[in-house]
Write a structure and sequence with these properties.
The protein contains ten helices and six strands. By secondary structure, the chain is mostly helical. It has a three-stranded antiparallel beta sheet with strand order 1-6-2. The chain has a three-stranded antiparallel beta sheet with strand order 4-3-5. The longest helix has 18 residues.
Length: 228
């Protein structure tokens, strides 16, 4: 990446001297300099609105460092050399079935849809009273005897995950506020996905929150040292 004309005459010497003078004396000293150099070369400067997430820094520069990237970031942040921005909301809502970020959509409606699809699958895979065969096996699960001659069903797995009677699974999934139902949905999906006997049918999935990743750049102080 070429440096912009506005930083044509910049020099990183003063920044390196500052890092070694204030943050030196640690095993990570050389790696702090390396990471600062890398950020400078990639134009991660406040005036450019260019940032890298930690995962991107790891992918790009991790092989150059002997110290963990997390330690280097922490030390440079404490030394006012590196800072982060959060682009957008603090948390992202991930809709796993759709593989999308769904911030801004009605969470209650989203959770309700996934739960109703899960309920439909549970009821569709309940054993036929006449045959006694498990529809879960026909739906892709393995025919594993759980004892007593009965095959494990989707309802069995979910009732265990939610710690409720089998007959109460639907009511329990639908009960509670949005957060409660989201938690139960995720617990049920986790239990299904982790059990080798049953399988999801792709019509429902977890809805979860993740922290919006920090995006890093050099600080104004670091730029001032470069410009000095």
């Amino acid at each position: 990446m070429e440096l912009k004309p506005t930083i044509h005459h910049m020099s990183i010497t003063h920044l390196i001297d500052d890092i070694r003078g204030r943050l030196g004396g640690k095993p990570s000293e050389d790696d702090l300099v390396k990471l600062a150099r890398c950020c400078y070369r990639e134009n991660l400067l406040p005036e450019n609105d260019q940032y890298m997430k930690k995962s991107e820094l790891e992918d790009t520069f991790g092989d150059y460092l002997d110290t963990s990237l997390g330690t280097c970031i922490k030390n440079l942040r404490n030394g006012d050399i590196l800072q982060y921005q959060v682009q957008g909301p603090d948390f992202l809502i991930i809709h796993e079935r759709r593989d999308e970020i769904v911030n801004g959509e009605d969470l209650d409606i989203l959770v309700t849809e996934e739960i109703e699809n899960l309920v439909d699958h549970i009821e569709a895979t309940d054993p036929d009273d006449e045959s006694g065969d498990s529809a879960a096996v026909a739906d892709g699960g393995e025919d594993v005897d759980q004892g007593g001659g009965d095959d494990l069903t989707l309802r069995d797995v979910v009732s265990t995950a939610l710690d409720v009677d089998e007959s109460d699974v639907e009511d329990d999934l639908r009960a509670g506020d949005t957060t409660d139902r989201q938690s139960k949905l995720n617990d049920a999906v986790d239990a299904i996905e982790q059990n080798p006997v049953v399988a999801t049918n792709g019509s429902y999935g977890k809805i979860r929150f993740i922290r919006n990743p920090h995006q890093y750049e050099l600080t104004a102080r670091a730029v001032n040292l470069i410009n000095a």
